[in-house]
């Protein structure tokens, strides 16, 4: 569960990149965070994960404040950033073991998890190679694997499907559903509206730092009183902002 409580972020003390937003992402749901580039999606995710601090407000992950108790809060979630270019001198297996060490995953548990994830993402033959030799899609997969190695309660994914091949994208979407079926939480940002339509239980649309809509896709359709596609509704929501 994630609670975003009256959160704002200003980088220049004049304009808010994120402007007084409040959201509750429940256990057992895939929650999509939609908006055009520059809308405030990544800033919000960086505040949820504790990379940057909000100017005002508070954020709780599994009931723990990321601003007041960041180390405990960070144990509760996995974070996949929008750019997977990190630790490029490490081999795939070294990166996964490093992430397992960070989260205190036992030797037996990590072995089983690495075998399972590398098989699902078809990465078994690449684990001995350095990340700098990987394609963008392979780097994306290894970062996802590293994030999930400690089986966290909450997944926070920033544009997670970018660069993935269709099979891997399908597998990740399948894993999101398995995770929420177990009563856990997935929060992910995207500007690909078709993905949100197929995967999400609820969505929020953000533009220019403000939440324009939050609810189910059915509620969104009812809100517009029409059978328009999500893309058309999205454009109607944002065109006058």
UniProtKB/TrEMBL annotation:
CDD domains: ABC_DR_subfamily_A
TM segment ranges: none
All copies of domain ABC transporter, residue ranges: 2-233
A Pfam family per the record: ABC_tran
Keywords: ATP-binding, Nucleotide-binding, Transport
GO function term, MF aspect, one: ATP binding
Keyword Cell inner membrane listed: no
Protein name: ABC transporter ATP-binding protein
Gene source species: Clostridium polyendosporum
